[in-house]
Amino acid sequence: MAAHQVDKTYEVKKLNHGEAFELFTWSAFKRKAPDAGYLEICNRAVLYAEGLPLALKVMGSNLFGKTVAEWKSALGKYEKIPSREVQNVLRVTYDNLEENEKEIFLDVARFFKGETMEYVEKTLQACGFYPTFGISVLIYRSLVSIDEYNRLRIHDLIQDMGREIVREVSPIELGKRSRLWHHEDVFEVLTENTVRAMCVLVILHSFTNL
Tell me: the pLDDT tens digits for 141-152? Predict the structure, then answer.
């Protein structure tokens, strides 16, 4: 940590699976055990929240009284478009960052999770950022961490926040987003741009033949 000028870090305490499951079921069913037929989907929700109490409470409350089919639909949405209530709390930390740190965070969330610090710093510096300082700020704010192998780590829900920040810039037009997360989105943008380019070429060709 000293190499990145971080004297003290604070990491939000996460619950173990048993504690997380109990908290979630109290929120979703108002009792300690889930209804019959909900065990598998409960485990899926708990795994998604990765022990974050806020996420467990919000998801549990939102799913209270819903059918298994509704749970599956909601979790599918959370996995692609995270819960706004959870994201609003996490977003406060991001919003207080400077531009250099915001851009580094979004790049880490999209491209560099699990990569070595040496590789990430070299790449980001080549892109005109100041990664040594920037990453130290992200670590201090508990947005990212470095494991024992000197690799960058980021909680899935915090990574989801990065994805949602990018999505909000252009919810409909994928080509206007600064980063793309899903391979099908990349394919759609490349295909759309190729088709447009071909149309422009056809039009220009027709004009030159007039």
Answer: 878 889 999 999
Amino acid letter, residue 90: L
Q: What gap in Å lies between CA 108 and CA 112, rounded to an integer?
A: 4
Give the class (CATH, top level) of 90-163.
mainly alpha
Domain ranges of the chain: 17-80, 90-163, 180-208
Which residue in 5, 46, 6 sits closest to 27, CA to CA?
A: 46
Q: How far is CA 116 from the centre of its chain?
A: 19
SS3 content of the chain, % helix, strand, coil (to 5): 65, 5, 30
- Of 27 and 186, which is predicted with more confidence? 27
Q: Quote the pLDDT of residue 13.
A: 60
End-to-end CA distance of the chain: 68
Question: What is d(CA 109, CA 30) in angstroms, rounded to the nearest whole number?
Answer: 35
